[in-house]
Automatic annotation (TrEMBL):
CDD domains: G-alpha
Gene Ontology CC annotations of this record: cytoplasm; heterotrimeric G-protein complex
MF (Gene Ontology): G protein-coupled receptor binding; G-protein beta/gamma-subunit complex binding; GTP binding; GTPase activity; metal ion binding
Binding positions for Mg(2+) per the UniProt entry: T84, T218
Keywords, comma-separated and alphabetical: GTP-binding, Magnesium, Metal-binding, Nucleotide-binding, Transducer
Keyword Nucleotide-binding set for record: yes
Pfam families (UniProt xref): G-alpha
Name of the protein described by the UniProt record: Guanine nucleotide-binding protein G(F) subunit alpha
GO biological process: adenylate cyclase-activating dopamine receptor signaling pathway; sensory perception of chemical stimulus
Binding of GTP, residues: 80-85, 212-218, 245-249, 314-317, 391
Amino acid sequence: MGLLIRCPRDLDGHSVAAGRIVKDPGFVCGYLLPTMLLIDCFRRPSHELQARKKQSSKEMVQMRKLYRDPVKILLLGAGESGKTTIIKQMRILHIQNSYSFDERLEKLSDIYENIHESIYELVRQVVLLSLEFDSVSNQRCAEYILRMGHQAPWNLSAEYVQCVRRLWSDSGVKRCYKRSNEFQLIESAKYFLDRVEKISMPGYIPTNSDILNCRKTTTGIQEIRFNVRMPGPLGGGMQEFRMFDVGGQRHHRSKWMQAFEGVHAVLFLISCGGFDQTLREDPKQNRLAEGFELFRGVWHNRFLAETGVIVFMNKQDVLEQKLLAGKSIRTYFPDYDDYVAFADKEQLYDELTRTRSFIRSKLVDITNEPPRRTSHLVGRKRTCYFHFTVATDTQNVRTVFNDVHSIILTKNLSKMDLL
Ligand SMILES: Nc1nc2c(ncn2[C@@H]2O[C@H](COP(=O)(O)OP(=O)(O)OP(=O)(O)O)[C@@H](O)[C@H]2O)c(=O)[nH]1
Ligand SMILES: [Mg+2]
C-alpha cells in the first residue's frame, strides 16, 4: 500500500446510483495525489521526506507510464444487450466528426432493414396470433409486405411507406406489438416505425439517434480506439483507450477468448428490459436468465480472474416502460416475491427501484459465490462495479463512462501498489 493515501475507499465497491455518477473515493484519491504529497511533506522529518520524495517521483514515473499504455476494455454480454451501442457512443463522445456524411448515408440501408424486419415480423405475427387487421385495405397492405419476404426494399417508395404507416396505426398490429415479448422483434421497431415517413424523405441523413437505435448483429470482433483527456495532476495529455466489441449470440461466443489477452477491464452488459423475453437463438431460454448465466461464466472465468469487471445493467428505459405497462418480473422470476419482503424492509416501495435492486442482487449473489475449484484466485477479494444504464442515451453514457474511467484508473493504480 502507498503511504500517502488515507482517503476512505469504497467498501463494497458497488458504485451504483441509478445510472448517475457516484464518485469513487479511490478516484478522488488518485487525482489528489500530488496535493496530498505536499500536505504530507509538512508533517515529516527531513530524511524521511527525502526518501519519500524519491519514492513518490518513482511512483509518478510509473503512473505516467501507465497512462502512456492504452487501456484495453472488452465488452461482453448476450445478444442485443447493447454492446455495439456503447461502441457507437464512444465514437460519438470521443471521436471528432464521429460519423462522416458518407458513413451516415451508408447507414440508410441498415435503417431500411430495421424498418422492414419490424413491420414484416409484426404483420406475420398478427396472423400467427390470430389477431385481425382493422380493414380489408390494411389486410391488403399486410399481404403486400408479406409478399416482399425478408428482403428490405432498396428505397422507401411512396406505396411502401403508406402501407407501413397504415399498418403501424392498425389496432390489430398495436395489440400484436404489445405482445412482442412472445416473439422476436428488434428493440428499435417502434423508434423506426414512428419515423418511417421522415426517413423516406429525399435527402434524409441519419442522425446520431438513428445510428444508436439501428440494430445490426455483430459477428466478428470489432475494435475502436479513442483518446480521453487525462487530469493535469497526472501529467495531463491524452490517454488511449481500445474497446473491443464481440458478437453476443451463443454461436458467436466461441470467439470471445481471442479478445481476452491483456484486457484491463470487462464491461459486461445485461439487458434488464429483457426480463419477459426469450433468446432469439433459443426461444426456450429467458433473456435475463441467460444474462445471469453468462455473467456467472465471465466472473468465474480463470482467464479474466485478474481483470476488473464493471456491469452495465442496461435498457433501464425499456424496463421502466414494461413495468408502467403493468408487467412484473415475478411472472418470470418467482423468487422476486422473497425479495419484495426484504425490499420492503429497506423501504424500497417503488416497483421500478425494487425490480432494479432485485436484478442487481442476483448479480451480486453471483459475485459472492465461491470461486470454482479451478480458479487460482480462491480466497482473494474481487470487486465488481454496477451501473444502471440506457445505452442509447448519450448523456447517460457520458456520465457512466467518466465513472468507468475513474474505476479503471483506481484499479490500475492499486494494482501497481500506488493506492
Ligand atoms: N431502448 C433502448 N434500446 C437499447 C438500449 N441499448 C441498446 N439498445 C438497442 O438494442 C438493440 C441491440 O443493441 P446492440 O448494441 O446491437 O446489442 P449487442 O449487444 O451489440 O448485440 P450483438 O451484436 O448481437 O451481440 C439496438 O437496436 C440498440 O439501439 C437501451 O438502453 N435502451
Ligand atoms: Mg453488437
